[in-house]
Write a structure and sequence with these properties.
Mean pLDDT of chain A: 87
Structural class of chain C: mainly alpha
Helix content of chain C: over 70%
Structural class of chain A: alpha/beta
Oligomer: heterotrimer
Largest sheet of chain A: 5 strands, parallel
Low-confidence stretches of chain A: none
Shape of chain A: globular
Bound molecules: iron/sulfur cluster
Radius of gyration of chain C: 25 Å
Number of domains of chain C: 2
Distance between the termini of chain A: 27 Å
Helix content of chain A: 25-40%
Strand order of the largest sheet of chain C: 1-2
CATH topology of chain A: Rossmann fold
Strand order of the largest sheet of chain A: 2-1-3-5-7
Low-confidence stretches of chain C: none
CATH class of chain A: Alpha Beta
């Protein structure tokens, strides 16, 4: 059974968001959208999280933090880039301090477009991420069993 | 009406222990699931499936083991073992005090785990966890003392079979116990060290550095503990088993209600108010009982 | 048998003289010391097994000459104290000594000829327990001193090196302790009592600077107050009932002996540092560690509770006994609370000592079979575990250069073996099975029938106990990988041996606890109450399951996690993603900030100044009531 699908826990990190997308992420927890009905929880601790939801573009300051957080997450884990900034840098693309989208530093699995991304699409993206999580787990297991054979 | 009591008598001690070890996590997980559902309803949300806690735990078991130091997980294993042990003692009908102390021992391992990882957030959580322990410990002991004063025995099996309603002798103790039960269930306003899901504190408090399977163990230990605590509530109403079970569940609902209605207290308030409330409700009751006897 | 007792008193005396006069350069000194310590351990053990099935035995001793000798020595001690006090320009001790001396001399001259003492010495199970504690732990501490004192003088070049004198005092102290334990003649007991007072005074003042002189005189004053009251008690007792023997005391009519018994209990309170006398014990922490360990775990304070437990049967069912219980209870609760606010390791130990002794005193006051049972067990467990902890802190103090608990971060990385030993001691103090089961479980059961107030005090006090121990324990076992220097190899073998002995003793006492209970404590209770507390065998079984569970699971688990378990990935601690290394994180302006973790001390609630005076005030009131009601 896909337990990952049923209980994905999110870590939300604001790389350099204008806060527009952040608010949308929080909104999806409110009674109107109620993320928790999918078992999704916003944990705030990388060590408990399965999904890293990043808002905003990556800059020199947030780069290392992002990498640190990602490293402290246990496998399997996926990254969701929420909002245009996280995808490409959006209007801030050309700023001297902005490096661009999250995929400049970490492997992004799901892109959620929109400026700001709508809660519906965020939820959709997270649920997509769950599938990938499941896939990653089965791959991981396959690799492990193959390694064990060797 | 007395089927529960009969069951209690028919089963041998070992059977009762085994039943606890096997059934308590199921029951505890279910209660936790209902808790989350009801909490969500209180907030006007739909809420997760009732079986959500089980999904979470099963998922956690599949996660990678990441650690800060090699021994951190051992403390949590000990925590689980001693929690189960004390619960089993309780349902076997053994000495109530011994049960309480062995639970305190489990709690100490839990705290030591938080200290041992050497992370600032865990440390803070552990520090607060001790404060919570100190806050509830007197009342828990006084509960045992009160029950002894009425029934003349510390044995859970004797207390459970006491024919007249304990609650009539121990209203103050029961009130005090309800108060600290909020701490034990890790409910707001007293969830300083480790809170339930949707609540956030300083990162995750005590459990910040514990992830994957170990976190699952902590969760399971928490289920065991909750069932045992509800068992203690039951003791106050044991003269009528169905009433006892009903009240125990009502108590849990009440705690959820409190949880939904209060913001988190500071530790100063948590600590001070618990001791004060223990002194007012619990101690006065004990002293009155002491005087009655003389 | 009697020879063994006399041997135990005289042998340490002999060793102490040897220590004083043998030149320090003599190569065999430490060998002699080791052999002497071995003998001191062996004889009480021999006594234990030789009298295993016997009741108490009493010994007659031709005491004429000894009495005169003691009197002369008493005068000499008094003169010495007066000399020292006058030199230090402190006059309270002078007054106290003079009062005491006049009382005793007057008593001796007016009644001396008519004192008839049948049995001067005796031996029962309680004395054997005490002898074992004094013999084994006392001599282990002396052994530790061999390794510790050279280092002490290295660290404190300003202190005059009087090591011979130090060893002399330590062994003299042991001798006096044996004297207290075996004396049935109250005059003798008083004499040895005063010798311990003098020794503790000199030992505490060993450093001879202002702070230690202050503490030494404080200890002297308080113990002399106790001594004066003790002397009054003896006089009153003899005048009213013409007895001078401890065992006869219990047979007399309560109305006659109540007042002297209260006087003796008062002296015991002073010696065991209960409120209002607690400050001498906390002050005594300036002394070198072996002194603190000796005074506060196994000997001095135990002499106090010993006397209280001896006389408490006399006070049965009186207001005085209730007051005694409450004084113990107040000391227990208040000092446990104060200990929360202390970060000085030795002070925490000192306060927890007072707290434990308070519990013992309270048990003595309750004086039922169950209460005395737990009091005796508390004495044993406390002596073993607490001396172990004192000695550990002594080593840590020099390896880390601090005795502050806040500086003991990651101790387990720096002194792993020592930390392990310390954990055993701490577990002995407050965790299962000894600490938790004995000190809370049994005492609570003992109190609950007689005194609900004490049950309440115990409920709060035990919570406080958990607090200060757990946070200390947490501090020393926190692990962080990074630059920490291992300094364990610098600990001397003498010290390791002692720690080893005591750690093994802690575990052994725990395992042997049914044996101790059945063969040593129960006979004593039979002799006292004709009943023994009924202990639920099922409970004992559970205690054993917990204990053996821990003894088996802990090493196995540690082994498994250390060597076998490989299925993990190590990551850094969570620092908001700002990790630079294991011990630093990135702060503002690209600065690198070290992680610092501190404990809570709750000064605002449990500050020393705040609670100390409350304790003193309450206990003084209780003491006044105790004497007032008895005198009327
Ligand atoms: S995508 Fe738009 S709303 Fe979101 S962070 Fe960027 S600028 Fe703000």
């Amino acid at each position: 059974m896909g337990w990952f699908k049923r209980s994905p826990w999110i870590l939300h990190y604001n790389a350099t968001s204008c806060n527009g997308c952040d608010i949308e992420v929080i909104v999806s927890l409110t009674p109107l959208y109620d993320l928790e009905r999918f078992g999704i929880i916003n944990t705030g601790n990388p060590k408990h999280a399965d999904i890293l939801a990043v808002t905003g573009s990556v800059n020199e300051k947030s780069r290392q933090v992002l990498i640190n957080l990602y490293e402290q997450m246990p496998n399997p884990k996926v990254i969701v880039a929420v909002g245009l900034c996280a995808i490409s840098g959006c209007v801030f693309q050309d700023c001297y301090n902005v490096m661009g989208g999250v995929d400049k530093v970490l492997p992004v699995d799901v892109y959620v477009p929109g400026c700001a991304a709508r809660p519906e699409s965020i939820i959709d993206g997270v649920l997509k991420a769950c599938e990938i999580l499941e896939e990653k787990y089965s791959q991981q297991k396959k690799i492990q069993s193959r390694l064990a054979k060797i | 009406m007395n089927t529960i009591q009969e069951m209690f008598q028919v089963w041998s001690m070992l059977e009762r222990m085994l039943a606890f070890v096997l059934l308590a996590p199921l029951l505890g997980g279910l209660i936790a699931g209902i808790d989350r559902r009801v909490s969500a309803r209180f907030q006007g949300r739909y809420g997760p499936p009732v079986l959500q806690p089980f999904y979470d735990v099963l998922k956690l078991f599949r996660k990678e083991r990441i650690i800060v130091n090699r021994f951190q997980n051992f403390t949590m294993v000990l925590f689980l073992i001693f929690t189960i042990f004390s619960g089993a003692l309780f349902f076997a009908g053994a000495d109530l005090l011994l049960t309480i102390f062995s639970l305190a021992l489990a709690g100490t391992f839990f705290v030591l785990g938080g200290f041992c990882v050497g992370s600032p957030y865990s440390h803070l959580g552990a520090e607060r966890e001790i404060i919570q322990q100190v806050a509830y410990e007197p009342m828990v002991i006084l509960m045992a003392v009160g029950m002894y004063q009425v029934t003349g025995s510390f044995k859970v099996s004797v207390i459970a079979q006491y024919q007249s309603p304990l609650i009539l002798y121990l209203p103050g103790v029961f009130a005090g116990f309800l108060y600290i039960l909020t701490i034990k269930f890790r409910k707001s306003p007293f969830d300083l060290s480790m809170s339930h899901h949707a609540h956030q504190e300083i990162v995750r408090g005590m459990t910040t550095e514990f992830s994957g399977p170990t976190l699952a163990l902590i969760e399971i230990a928490h289920w065991y503990e909750n069932v045992m605590l509800l068992g203690m509530v039951y003791l106050f109403f044991a003269f009528n088993p169905w009433l006892g079970i009903g009240i125990a569940l009502l108590t849990y609902l009440f705690e959820i209600f409190i949880d939904m209605n209060y913001a988190r207290f500071k530790w100063q308030l948590t600590f001070g108010s618990s001791w004060l409330f223990t002194a007012v409700a619990g101690v006065s009751n004990i002293i009155v009982l002491g005087l009655m006897k003389i | 048998m009697m020879n063994a007792l006399i041997f135990l008193i005289l042998f340490p005396l002999f060793i102490s003289l040897l220590a004083l006069f043998l030149p320090r350069a003599l190569p065999g000194r430490k060998v002699i010391g080791t052999i002497a310590n071995a003998v001191l351990c062996a004889v009480p053990i021999y006594l234990l097994f030789a009298t295993l099935d016997q009741g108490p035995s009493y010994f007659r001793l031709e005491s004429g000459l000894i009495n005169i000798g003691m009197l002369v020595l008493e005068v000499l001690i008094a003169a010495y104290i007066i000399y020292l006090s006058v030199r230090a320009k402190r006059y309270l001790p002078v007054i106290l000594v003079v009062v005491q001396l006049v009382t005793m001399l007057g008593f001796e001259f007016s009644y001396g000829h008519s004192i008839q003492v049948e049995h001067s010495m005796f031996l029962d199970k309680f004395s054997i327990i005490m002898a074992l504690i004094v013999g084994i732990i006392g001599s282990a501490i002396c052994l530790y001193g061999f390794g510790y004192m050279p280092e002490y003088h290295e660290h404190h070049p300003e202190v005059k090196d009087r090591r011979n004198y130090f060893a002399f005092l330590m062994y003299l102290f042991l001798s006096a302790m044996f004297g207290i334990i075996f004396s049935n003649n109250l005059m003798w007991l008083f004499f040895f009592w005063e010798v311990t007072t003098l020794c503790s005074f000199l030992l505490i003042g060993y450093r001879d600077d202002k702070a230690s002189r202050d503490s030494a005189f404080r200890a002297l004053n308080m113990n002399l107050i106790g001594g004066v009251v003790f002397a009054f008690g003896i006089v009153i007792l003899f005048v009213s009932s013409r007895t001078m023997e401890l065992d006869k005391l219990l047979l007399l009519d309560q109305g006659v002996v109540l007042l002297p018994a209260v006087c003796f209990a008062f002296a015991g309170l002073a010696k065991s540092a209960q409120f209002p006398f607690s400050s001498w014990l906390t002050g005594a922490m300036v002394a070198p560690t072996p002194v603190s360990a000796l005074l506060h775990s196994s000997t001095m304070v135990k002499a106090g509770v010993y006397l209280i437990l001896r006389v408490s049967p006399v006070m049965e069912n009186t207001v005085a006994a209730q007051m005694l219980t409450l004084i113990g209870g107040v000391s227990f609760l208040v000092t446990a609370l104060i200990a929360i606010s202390q970060s000085n390791a030795k002070k925490v130990l000192a306060y927890s000592t007072i707290s434990n002794l308070g519990l013992i005193v309270a048990c003595a006051g309750v004086n039922t079979d169950a209460a005395v049972w737990s009091a005796l067990l508390l004495i044993i467990f406390h002596a073993v575990a607490k001396s172990l902890l004192f000695l550990c802190v002594g080593i840590i103090e020099y390896k880390l250069g601090s005795r502050d608990i806040e500086d003991m971060d990651f101790l387990i990385m720096r002194l792993p073996k020592l930390t392990a030993v310390m954990m055993i001691g701490m577990a002995g103090m407050f965790l299962a099975p000894f600490g938790m089961i004995i000190s809370k479980f049994v005492t609570l059961k003992a109190f609950i029938n007689t005194n609900p107030v004490m049950a309440i005090i115990l409920a709060y006090g035990s919570a406080a106990t958990i607090f200060f121990w757990t946070k200390w324990m947490g501090k020393i076992i926190s692990i962080r990988h990074g630059e920490t220097e291992v300094r364990e190899h610098e600990v001397s073998n003498w010290e390791w041996t002692t720690l080893g002995i005591l750690a093994v003793a802690t575990v052994a006492v725990c395992i042997a606890f049914p044996f101790i209970s059945f063969h040593v404590i129960d006979p004593y209770l039979m002799q006292l109450f004709n009943t023994v507390p009924v202990v639920d065998t099922f409970n004992i079984l559970i205690v054993f399951v917990i204990m053996f569970g821990l003894l088996i699971i802990l090493p196995l688990g540690l082994f498994y996690y250390a060597f076998i378990n490989k299925d993990y990935k190590r990551v850094g601690t969570y620092l908001g993603g700002g990790n630079i290394s294991n011990i630093t994180y990135e702060g503002a302006m690209e600065s690198s900030q070290p992680i610092q973790i501190k404990n809570y001390y709750l000064e605002k609630y449990f500050g020393e100044e705040r609670l100390f005076y409350i304790g003193v005030f309450v206990s003084l009131t209780l003491i006044f009531i105790m004497f007032g009601v008895t005198a009327i």
